[in-house]
Amino acid sequence: SFTSLNHDMTLAEFKFIWYMEYSHRMWGRVVGLAYILPAAYFWHRGCLSPPLKGCVLALCGLVCFQGLLGWYMVKSGLEEKPDSYDIPRVSQYRLAAHLGSALVLYSASLWTGLSLLLPRHKLPETKQLLRLRQCAHGTTALIFLTALSGAFVAGLDAGLVYNSFPKMGERWIPDDLLAFSPTLRNIFENPTTVQFDHRILGIASVTAVTALYLFSRKIPLPRRTRMAVTSLLAVACMQ
Q1: Residue 2 confidence (pLDDT) above 80
Q2: What are 168's strand-pairing partners?
Q3: Which of 69, 90, 118 is the last residue before a domain boundary?
Q4: Can you tell me where the transmembrane regions are (predicted)?
């Protein structure tokens, strides 16, 4: 990497990125201990119900899996690629897997924690409420997919290809959108297509969140639920 990309880097600049990576690894290990040590303590004390034991095991397993994925991802950036003169970088596939597993871990942890702290609302299962729940699940999946597409943007440095919005350069649809063969490769390996997809998914996510908010206003919901939907819209606009 030093000879191919960063040959003009000073020792101070190298120390900066080294400490960033080192801090990330140490923080990840602290997070792992923050899961495993309390889990072992409360398990030993008999404080966990059988369903909660399953959740705790799954979360601890996800933490370990996340660390393993991180190592696997970094390894891809250190491998010598024969006959390749490209800029050294980690695999965008492994980066997306690392980010995706982190999002699953965070969401599962938050869901488990809130389920224990807050009582579940007993609401009548009306058609409108069922539709709202389905829309919320669909929006969640769309946001997750958008975040994963961001990992492909980062992994391929696709954000550097076009820096204008809403057009990409002078065109709405770039000429090299399907330059790779077979066509499916473009979705994951063509920087132009990856950036284009991320833009479309981002716009779709904000639209879905806005529609979810507007739909929720037509349904009588508890105050806590209304706050959650409003907060979701505010965060989506900020993002």
Answers
A1: no
A2: 171
A3: 118
A4: 26-43, 55-74, 94-118, 139-162, 198-216
